[in-house]
Amino acid sequence: MIKLCSVDEIRAAEAAAIKSGVSESELMLAAGQGVARFILENDGTEEGQVLFLVGPGKNGGDGLVAAAHLVAHGWRALIWGFKRTDVSRAPVDAELADAFEWIDDDALAEACQEADVIVDAVFGFGSRPSLPDEVAAAFQLAWRARVISQTPLVAIDVPSGIDSDTGEAAEGAFRADHTVTIGLPKQGIYQQPASEFAGLIHLLDIGLPSPDAGDGDAALISESDVAGWLARRTSATQKRDAGALMVIGGAPNYYGAPRMAAGAGARAGAGIVTLAVPRTLIGPISTALPEATYLPLPEGEAGGAGVRMASLVRERLSGFQAFVLGPGLGQDSPVPEFLSALLGNRTSVTSIGFGATPNGLKSERLHHRGVIDADGLNWLAKQDNWWSWLQDSELVLTPHPGELGRLLGVETSAIQSDPWGYAREAAKKFGQTVVLKTGHSVVAKPDGSLLVSPQAPPSLATAGSGDVLAGTIGGLMAQGLPAAAAAASALYIGSQAALIGEQEIGTLGIVASDLIDGIGLALRQIYDARW
């Protein structure tokens, strides 16, 4: 895990690197050349035209080094400067610098329309969420080119106009498609609203020493973390060894949700996936998911139906390494009775009519590992002190801001104003791992630590993506991953699956089933058993 750093920590890391013998020019060369390599690898243009918007400080110097590197590869580099009219102290070869075409405000609009790529190198990580009028106007022209001509926008280190500590952003901040952040990840660009301006974030290592992430810190989930957490299979591994997952949910108008959760759990590597759903849903689900097995649950609102459902699940649950509870479950009768009996709430289970609650089931606490999502969370929010009677289970709770607000008894707007703080509060209060699904989604651990998703693909804004995430976490828990590791791995894998889908389908056309298909491809990138 890579600690998300404050501005002071980054400055200290740069000072430590210079003290160890690395010059500021060497750091600038590494940064600028890395940005240029990113553009060359991703643009697809052999000899394009790039427009750099550069400022007077080190960020502008990084931009000029990147421009020189592109010129060396045959590109034409146009430079618009804010309080800068030359390369100044930037380590740029004089011959390459002579090829730069410096432009003024009058030529900027045309340059934006003609550019193959526009790069923001105006202000660095030490800037604040405000912009001079002329810089804001330049950024507006760049955004107009993005809208009209689909010109890619790239920010160096951070988008100019955001606060790298708090995540605040000026209204006219540079709105990048990609941010190549230099050296160490800045905590602010993973928080809203700054993350909305950063686009996809790419961490460029230039050799800065990284502070260790301790208890209570926020850290970025990395591919190497996930690769280390994933379960390994050998030639002797059998399907039961690979983990058994039970998905519990489903209602007549929501039978797609448990199907997607189960499909994601299977794609995540669980050897056996069983759906515990009302019996009338098995037919339509099984045609779409032939790999799954089923536990038919009774239906009806007669007294005791929920208890019978819970009894069936309890009888089988010991044969599974993990469960996912909630996708498509609904909130109508007999769901409250079912959840009371299943989760061991001693105060809510009733004994009305046929199928009265057996005394053993009524008082038995749940001792298991699993994920509670959707309507499972909505039911918990109505129970008093529910975390005390679930403390014997190892759980991952997966709320969106509205659900977390109900669990904590606060408004959704409050959660959105401080998502990291409230995620930490919930994990500490409930004593369980909490995944807050918003922007760069976070995994909060009871010790106050946060694990932050490295990307926030906009294609995840589609119905069913939460069910896919819950199923992925459950599938990884079934394979033995601890709760926080399973949740963090699922966020990383899910983001990669979304990015794969965006390349194949596009951002607007992705549906949740596409994410399931992408899970296997994402896992192959992280861990290929053939290698």
Brief digest:
This protein has 20 helices and 18 strands.
Question: Can you walk me through this structure?
Answer:
This protein has 531 residues and is α/β, with parallel strands linked by helices. It has helices at 7-19, 24-43, 58-72, 94-98, 105-114, 133-149, 194-198, 223-229, 256-267, 282-288, 305-317, 335-343, 359-363, 375-380, 401-408, 412-417, 419-430, 465-478, 483-504, 512-526, and strands at 2-3, 49-54, 76-81, 101-103, 117-121, 153-156, 178-182, 200-204, 218-220, 244-248, 272-278, 293-297, 322-325, 369-372, 394-397, 433-436, 442-444, 450-452. An 11-stranded mixed sheet has the order 1-9-18-17-16-15-14-13-10-11-12, with helices on both faces. Strands 4-3-2-5-6-7-8 form a 7-stranded parallel sheet, sandwiched between helices. Strand 16 (433-436) and strand 17 form a beta hairpin. Helix 2 packs across helix 3 (58-72), helix 11 (305-317) runs parallel beside helix 12 and helix 18 (465-478) packs parallel to helix 20. It starts with a strand and ends in a 5-residue tail after the last helix. Residues 349-361 have low confidence and may be disordered.
How would you state the average pLDDT, rounded? 93
CATH architecture of the largest domain: 3-Layer(aba) Sandwich
Structural class: alpha/beta
Strand content: 5-15%
Gross morphology is: elongated
Task: Indicate the radius of gyration in whole angstroms.
Answer: 26 Å
> What is the CA-CA span between the terminal residues?
24 Å
- Percentage of residues assigned to helices: 40-55%
Strand order of the largest sheet: 1-9-18-17-16-15-14-13-10-11-12
User: Which fold name fills CATH's third level, the topology of the largest domain?
Assistant: UDP-N-acetylmuramoyl-L-alanine:D-glutamate ligase
Please tally the β strands and state the result.
18
- Mind describing the biggest β-sheet? 11 strands, mixed
Total number of distinct structural domains: 2
